[in-house]
Write a structure and sequence with these properties.
The structure holds 2 protein chains of 2 kinds.
Chain A: H1 2-30, H2 33-36, H3 39-62, H4 69-74, H5 81-87, H6 92-112, H7 119-143, H8 168-197, H9 203-234, H10 244-269, H11 273-296, H12 309-333, H13 348-378, E1 384-386, H14 388-408, H15 424-439, H16 450-477, H17 480-487, H18 489-514, E2 516-522, E3 527-530, E4 533-544, E5 548-559, E6 562-567, E7 570-574, E8 580-583, E9 585-587, E10 592-601, E11 607-615, H19 618-634, H20 644-657
Antiparallel strand pairs in A: 2-11, 3-4, 4-5, 5-6, 5-7, 7-8, 9-10, 10-11
Chain B: H1 3-33, E1 34-38, H2 40-44, E2 54-60, E3 66-67, E4 73-79, E5 84-90, E6 102-110, E7 113-120, H3 130-138, H4 142-150
Parallel strand pairs in B: 1-2, 5-7
Antiparallel strand pairs in B: 2-4, 2-6, 3-4, 4-5, 6-7
The chains are: A alpha+beta, B alpha+beta.
Amino acid sequence: MIPEIGHFALVLSFAVSICSATFPLYGYFTRQQGFLATAKPLALLQGFALTVSFGVLIYGFLAHDFTIKYVAANSNLDLPWYFRMSAVWGAHEGSLLLWVLILSLWGVAVALFSREIPVHMSALVLAVMGIIGAGFLAFMLFTSNPFVRILPFAPPNGADLNPLLQDPGLIFHPPMLYMGYVGLSVAFAFAIASLISGELNSMWARWSRPWTTVAWAFLTLGIALGSWWAYYELGWGGWWFWDPVENASLIPWLVATALMHSLAVTEKRGLFRSWTLLLAIAAFSLSLLGTFLVRSGVLTSVHAFANDPERGVFILGFLVVVIGGSLALYAVRASKVSESGEFGWISRESFLLFNNLILTVMAVSVLLGTLYPLLVDAVGGGKVSVGAPFFNAVFVPLTAILVSGMAFGPLSKWREADDPRLYRPLIVTMIVSVVIGLAWPTTLGGEYSIATAFGVTIALWLAIATAVDFVNKTRSFGGVGRTFARVERGMFGMWFAHLGVAIIIFGIVMVENHTEHRDLRMGVGDRQQLGSYEVRMTELSVLRGPNYVADQATFEIYWGDRLYKTVSPQKRRYNASGMVMTEASIDPGFTRDLYIAMGEPLDGGDWAVRLSVKPFVDWIWAGAFLMGLGGFISVTDKRYRQRAVEKQTDSCVEGAKA
Amino acid sequence: MNPKRKQRLFIILGLVSGLGVAVGLVMYALSQNINLFFTPTQIAKGDAPVAQMIRVGGMVADGTVDRDPQSLRVAFDVTDFDHNVHVTYEGILPDLFREGQGVVVQGRISGDQFFASEVLAKHDENYMPPEVTEALRQSGKLDQIMGVETK
């Protein structure tokens, strides 16, 4: 009975989404306030219906309701409750339900926090989101319904959740990532709404800016969590693999990053308007493309679920409608956008243009590398794969160019060509970072690494330049506390995020160039040197977990003569599926992680063992966390809480000045 | 031309040439870094280039996995049930590597051996890499394998 409630709520939300896709549009074109006013209540109803539906599926998992096919396929009596919760989004149907739930929650947020936005505008935004929701709900109901039941002969036990996903990382990674992916639909909806209404001034940029920033922050955290999960759960210690699915999340992230910066120009200066619109459309379209790539299984990837082609065709069709429709609208309307205002060759506008150019090139190259195997296959060129060397060859130099601009950008001023004296602090910054950067590899021992020297220089250059900007601006505003409390939270967001980039680069440079890594054969009593530590295997045992049996090796790590730590990595075999999983032991540290994992049993009772020291690897995720934090701080900026009237007037003033 | 138009023209020219150069470099990097895929049959016929990084997909042939007792060196045959490729690899094999399981190996041909630098077996037992499916389809053994799997 209860699953039917979930199913009913899902059908109801589909009906609601069709209403919210059509009523406000009808109201807008016939100028009937009554229809426009339905947008917000419908969004709330939509959120409610999907919350009920999602809640029912969670209940199905917690209560072991194996009459639900999806539960039977992805759960098990032995599965601990927290993994039964995360199993809800552990496979195709449930992750789609999470997708539409999050879309509806973004809709609820827009309905609640858009009081200062004109009614017709918020109604159009919600209508666009309704169209997207209707498409995805139709997809779910017709091809991937999570409430399909196995009656009357339900299995006594479930098939179990893929062991790879039985991990705390998976509890948070998909919801975060989806918050980001789907959050980009709000910026997209604002762009489409302003294209429909023809109000292509910079107001839409001001409205959609905080939404874009929040979505970007979630996307950043989601990608970072995914990378962290890959690091300790499936990657054998790697943190990024240029897997198509990772790329599918990185591409929208790059475009969203460009969008955030371009929105700033559009809001403050009224420039780049049509470009910003295009980026908003592109960012969400690419996250839809990402969904298509992941769900259709056209690409070889760890994320590819066993799949059926019908689904791929449906998403592809939806993709064509959404992207084609919005680009067609853009083509018709964008010519009406008037660009006004000039800017100097060396001004903040130029630097942001530069930022957009580089980020776009990065996004296009990753997209090209990801889709290239598909294109070649489609024209009959056979199966090819594009590996990490390609992405590294393209990404590393572009990042270096981007970062050099990131040091100048914040110091620059809007509009006019700057006084060169503005950039004087950067000369000292440059000297300091080059000196430390060149000296750094010599402290590491071993062969001198030019790549490390270069990378550390770049990271320092950005970090110091950001610090210089921080000191200058907070001083001119009268201290850090005052700046934070009264002046510009957006600035703090930027400083955090840029510092985060510097930290990530430093982490990547160190871990990529100085990881010590050995695959060895070890038995009980064997000792191996690992960096400045000695690792001894002391015991091999067999352990019984709630739903698996594990071979466990115990290692003692010595630092000199002192026992530093005892760790016990495992090799688990999950009962229900028979799948084998590696549980690595990681000793995290500020300057290095020690990574020990069991490979496979060898003859004579020995094991293949992987030992690694990964310098500064945690800085990668710490930096990403800072970036996300920066995003959240910047949306608390009080100008986003100003009343609409004030905004109207100061944008007029700004227009007049321009 | 007024200065505003002139600036816009320069920006557009800059963007176009910048993008052109970028796309050129990307295409070059791409052409240097793609790995072509071959089936065991193609390799047996000598269609695959020697000493170039390629990928081979198929099933791990039963009873061929041979481990060196001293090191982490391992040898096995990858088959499409018409022909076998003898693969040598040193290192830790993926968790799902097993006889009778689909794998994709990346590496180089040297003599009559294939030296793998990477062995990929996917983390879902029911999931077959598209390359392997393709190899089996070409050798006409796909239905047979699928039949066995569903039993």
